[in-house]
């Protein structure tokens, strides 16, 4: 939090846009902020070792300085060819090579924030809407709405069925938009889920493809946590679904957002992509990408790292292993004190159930409990209401910090 420019004892006020209440808290640097950071830090030692063994991968070292001139001058705005090829190959490996990706369909973006905004600009006009199943990443309100004028319409998902997306709920949300004369342009899903740490099943993904095709709306799949799945069931990418012969769909409606911020732990590098099966979207996104490019220096380093098959294979395996160990340790310790979590097998966090600790089942009571956790227990967790959860008492807590 101090890196966000907060002063000691600064009072922060936040007004929840969905549940219409305001709460405040006082910033305290002694609070353990690690439980708020959704950053993969468990494998930084592997990155460090690779950099020491491959100093030529950086143009800022004596070994790599010879490439400085070629990298520092203007480059193709579509991205270095070796970078796009390396990212495409990495995406395939993360998905256990059950799907392939065309480097020419990769459009760079300076982080997933820019990638989401880019796809929103490409697909929708101001006043149009995307269906989004909550609880969902709070940043979507910024990424997809602030500058685009696009609306987000929630699809009812409840804890009683582990927040699974149902066609009935999708139909209801779609009809709600129609009755309000709002044009629905797409469905946005996050798989694996932030904040739930769960995956969407293969059957459900197939049903979502069928639904969006029937409505002739786009399906945008945020898959930035694809490499964080550490136990069964395995992750299924939307790319796998549409490559199956039995699935009949219009590929022009399918788009993927991917990033190295979570799977590799590189949020500071601002490396994300839009991958679209729609030629017109690829063309439009490439033009828009000029406003949020990835630096050539970063592309050069990432291309070198991801081209190292031995390193990538080791990193993926070790990352999953360490996440599994940390998740098991964390959830078992919570269970020992009577705190349950939603069953999960992915992500850098768990969805913690503290409903029984609320004085009353309201979001105001959730904020009271949250302030106790922050100010008295010195643990920085995220309240479910910030993720637009419809039920008070759930909290996201991260476990992947060093």
Describe this structure in words.
- By secondary structure, this protein is of the alpha/beta class.
- The chain folds into two domains: 2-42 and 312-398, Alpha-Beta Complex (Aspartate Aminotransferase, domain 1), CATH 3.90.1150; 67-309, Type I PLP-dependent aspartate aminotransferase-like (Major domain) (Aspartate Aminotransferase, domain 2, 3-Layer(aba) Sandwich).
- Helix content is 35%, strand content 15%.
- It is built from twelve helices and 13 strands.
- The strands form three sheets. A seven-stranded mixed sheet has the order 3-9-8-7-6-4-5, with helices on both faces. It has a four-stranded antiparallel sheet with strand order 10-11-13-12.
- Helix 3 packs across helix 10 (296-306) and helix 4 packs across helix 9 (279-288).
- The longest helix has 28 residues, at 309-336.
- It is globular.
- Pathway: Alkene biosynthesis; ethylene biosynthesis via S-adenosyl-L-methionine; ethylene from S-adenosyl-L-methionine: step 1/2.
- Residues 46-401 form the Aminotransferase class I/classII large domain.
- It catalyses: S-adenosyl-L-methionine = 1-aminocyclopropane-1-carboxylate + S-methyl-5'-thioadenosine + H(+).
Binned strand content = 15-25%
* SSE series: EEHHHEHEHEHEHEHEEHHHEEHEE
Strands of the widest sheet, in order across it, are 3-9-8-7-6-4-5
CATH architecture designation of the largest domain: 3-Layer(aba) Sandwich
The beta-strand count equals 13
Per DSSP, the total helix count is 12
CATH class membership of the largest domain: Alpha Beta
Poorly predicted parts: 1-39
Quote the average pLDDT: 86
Quaternary arrangement of the chains shown? single chain
GO biological process, one term: ethylene biosynthetic process
Pathway: Alkene biosynthesis; ethylene biosynthesis via S-adenosyl-L-methionine; ethylene from S-adenosyl-L-methionine: step 1/2
Domain Aminotransferase class I/classII large: 46-401
Family: Belongs to the class-I pyridoxal-phosphate-dependent aminotransferase family.
């Amino acid at each position: 939090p101090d890196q966000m420019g907060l002063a000691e004892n600064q009072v922060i006020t936040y007004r929840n846009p969905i549940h219409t209440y305001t709460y405040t808290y006082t910033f305290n640097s002694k609070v353990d902020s690690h439980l708020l950071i959704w950053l993969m830090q468990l494998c930084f030692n592997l990155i460090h070792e690779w950099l020491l063994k491959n100093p030529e991968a950086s143009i800022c070292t004596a070994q790599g300085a010879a490439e400085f001139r070629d990298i520092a001058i203007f480059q193709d705005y579509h991205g270095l060819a070796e970078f796009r090829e390396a990212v495409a190959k990495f995406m395939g490996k993360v998905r256990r090579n059950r799907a392939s990706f065309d480097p020419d369909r990769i459009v760079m973006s300076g982080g997933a924030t820019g990638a989401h905004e880019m796809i929103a600009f490409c697909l929708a006009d101001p006043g149009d809407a995307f269906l989004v199943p909550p609880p969902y990443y709070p940043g979507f309100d910024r990424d997809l709405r602030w500058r685009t004028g696009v609306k987000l319409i929630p699809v009812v998902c409840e804890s009683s069925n582990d927040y699974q997306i149902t066609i009935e709920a999708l139909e209801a949300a779609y009809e709600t938009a129609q009755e309000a004369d709002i044009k629905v342009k797409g469905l946005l899903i996050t798989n694996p889920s932030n904040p739930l740490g769960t995956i969407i099943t293969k059957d459900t993904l197939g049903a979502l493809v069928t639904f969006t095709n029937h409505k002739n709306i786009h399906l945008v799949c945020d898959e930035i946590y694809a490499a964080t799945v550490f136990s069964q069931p395995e992750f299924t990418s939307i790319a796998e679904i549409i490559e199956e012969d039995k699935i009949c769909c219009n590929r022009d409606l399918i788009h993927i957002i991917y990033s190295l911020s979570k799977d590799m732990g590189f949020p500071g590098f601002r490396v994300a992509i839009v991958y679209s099966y729609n030629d017109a979207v690829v063309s439009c996104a490439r033009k828009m990408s000029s406003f949020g490019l990835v630096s050539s220096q970063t592309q050069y380093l990432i291309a070198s790292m991801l081209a190292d098959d031995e390193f990538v294979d080791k990193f993926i395996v070790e990352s999953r292993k360490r996440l599994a160990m940390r998740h098991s340790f964390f959830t078992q310790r919570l269970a020992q004190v009577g705190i349950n979590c939603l069953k999960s097998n992915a992500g850098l966090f768990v969805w913690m159930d503290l409903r029984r600790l609320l004085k009353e089942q309201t979001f105001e009571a959730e904020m009271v409990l949250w302030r106790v956790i922050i100010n008295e227990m010195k643990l920085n967790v995220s309240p479910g209401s910030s993720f637009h959860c419809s039920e008070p008492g759930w909290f996201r807590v991260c476990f992947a910090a060093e």
